[in-house]
Specification:
- The protein is an alpha+beta fold and 495 residues long.
- It folds into two domains: 4-67, no CATH class; 135-150 and 212-495, no CATH class.
- The protein is built from 16 helices and 17 strands.
- The longest helix is centred in the last third of the chain and has 20 residues, at 452-471.
Length: 495
């Protein structure tokens, strides 16, 4: 492959992919020279992809002292370089809504998704590092991801971050003020970040993609005002309103309480995308008819967590019934099965809701959540229990609820050591995996080099199913089923 001048090749790509013309070449040359450092104009490359070219420019800048060598500093420069091919927010929004109205919503969404990948806002190369595999379980095909896309902070970055004064701007990573933000050592680069504005029930909201996507077209819908998450009747209305505006996407909300909620409870937002999760495929186990809502198909879903599914054509009826279930649940106690609405003035109940369109009808899944703790379960009664925390200790948020495990990066190396142990090889297996590994040894009579990966995958799937069962309020036994029935009777069902 012939060598080409790196800077010239990058500028050629910017002109082809961005809003610049040949007339802007000298301007681009000088602006990039300033960012990267003089001398780069002599550097050659064999690369053609703009993201690869950007990475080479960043490395040159690091080597010649134009930018620091921490990951965040390199990302800040990288995002600034990719901003050259990213239209202004007003142009992105204008193009989106013009295409939406004149061609189709699907085309507008696809174009925005393509831009978010092309300009390296969505970190496709980093995401490709994630370990992913499906596992068959009694609840259907669960999905396992070991998250390797988000690089861990290096010691230099941590040291620099400690020296920095707290900024308070932007208030959080979901605020609108992130659009175009340069970034800093302790905050991600957002120069190439764009947000689509849209109206949702007379309020302005934003639509963006997740930089480190966990599934296809993983996106975020965010309130343009920085206010805490709250599950209310308006939530159900918003979710159904979003799926009407963004065809082909599901959308759901994390719960609004600690332990059962997501990682960012300070800013109202939802997550969505174009992906079919195991929970969506799960069938109705027990059909229900709610009094006054006979036109709505309803039932308890065959799922490790406690899920009521509602389906119908009337958005208003679905919202009303969902709100009735939420209000009943918030005040509901059943001490026979450790279900307690509140204690010491702290409320324990909320719902994780998910909306989608299926066969032309609107569908809402309502997952009952309870964030109580106890002496036996200080991390949460309905949280991964201690015996499975060697695999998953973190909160069970929206994505896990639907059947996609997001496991910590430590497991990549740790599971390799478990495999060595299972094969009788010298290993450095962590002590907290010992009981699990011994159970696997007992369970399988023949573990060898050819099948050890498959066995580990199967057993991880089983652990994840157990994690979800731990998080389920009503268990899949006679006691749990009877208790679940008592709750839906409290809401009001027709026998």
């Amino acid at each position: 492959m012939d060598d080409k001048l790196l800077l010239d090749t990058f500028i050629k790509q910017v002109i082809e992919q961005g809003n610049y013309t040949e007339l802007d070449r000298n301007y681009l040359y000088n602006r990039i020279l300033n960012l990267v450092g003089e001398g780069v104009e002599k550097l050659t490359t064999t690369k053609n992809e703009i993201i690869d070219l950007k990475n080479e420019l960043v490395e040159y800048a690091v080597q010649h002292g134009k930018v620091g060598e921490t990951l965040n500093e390199k990302d800040c420069l990288g995002a600034e370089l990719m901003n050259f091919i990213t239209p202004l927010p007003s142009k992105v929004n204008q193009d989106f809504w013009q295409t939406y109205q004149q061609n189709s919503p699907e085309e507008a969404i696809q174009n925005f998704y393509d831009l978010s990948k092309r300009n390296d806002y969505i970190k496709t190369k980093a995401i490709a590092k994630n370990i992913y595999f499906p596992v068959e379980t009694s609840y259907g095909q669960l999905e396992i991801t070991i998250n390797l896309s988000k690089p861990e902070k290096d010691p230099k970055q941590i040291a620099l971050a400690k020296k920095m004064k707290a900024s308070g701007y932007p208030l959080c990573q979901l605020c609108m003020e992130n659009e175009g933000y340069q970034g800093r050592v302790n905050y991600p680069a957002r120069a190439n970040h764009r947000i689509i504005r849209f109206d949702l029930d007379d309020k302005q909201w934003g639509f963006q993609y997740s930089p480190y996507a966990y599934f296809n077209e993983h996106c975020i819908f965010l309130d343009t005002i920085h206010e805490p998450m709250e599950i209310t009747k308006q939530t159900f209305n918003n979710l159904l309103g979003i799926i009407e505006q963004f065809p082909g996407y599901f959308v759901g909300s994390n719960a609004d309480l600690p332990i059962v909620g997501g990682s960012i409870l300070t800013h109202e937002h939802y997550q969505g995308g174009r992906h079919t999760f195991a929970m969506e495929k799960a069938p109705i186990e027990t059909e229900l008819k709610f009094a006054g809502y006979e036109d709505i198909q309803a039932g308890i879903v065959k799922w490790p967590m406690s899920v009521i599914r509602l389906r119908g054509n009337s958005k208003e009826d679905l919202v009303d019934l969902a709100d009735k279930i939420l209000k009943t649940w918030r005040g509901y106690s059943d001490e026979k099965v450790s279900v307690l609405a509140e204690s010491n003035g702290e409320k324990h109940h909320t719902i994780t809701p998910i909306a989608r369109k299926r066969d032309g009808q609107l569908e809402l899944d309502l997952v009952l959540r309870d964030n109580q703790t106890s002496e036996q379960y200080p991390d949460g009664i309905y949280h991964p229990h201690p015996d499975v925390q060697h695999i998953k200790k973190e909160n069970i948020g929206l994505i896990e609820v639907m059947g996609l495990a997001i496991l910590p990066p430590r497991l990549k190396g740790e599971l390799q050591e478990v495999e060595k142990y299972l094969l009788g090889q010298e290993n450095k297996m962590e002590e907290y995996h010992q009981v699990w590994a011994d159970d696997i040894k007992q369970k399988y009579s023949d573990i060898n080099q050819d099948n050890v990966d498959t066995i580990i995958h199967q057993e991880l799937g089983r652990v994840f199913a157990r994690v979800l069962e731990d998080a389920g309020v009503y268990k899949h036994d006679d006691t749990g089923r009877m208790a679940f029935k008592r709750f839906v009777e409290e809401v009001g069902i027709v026998d």
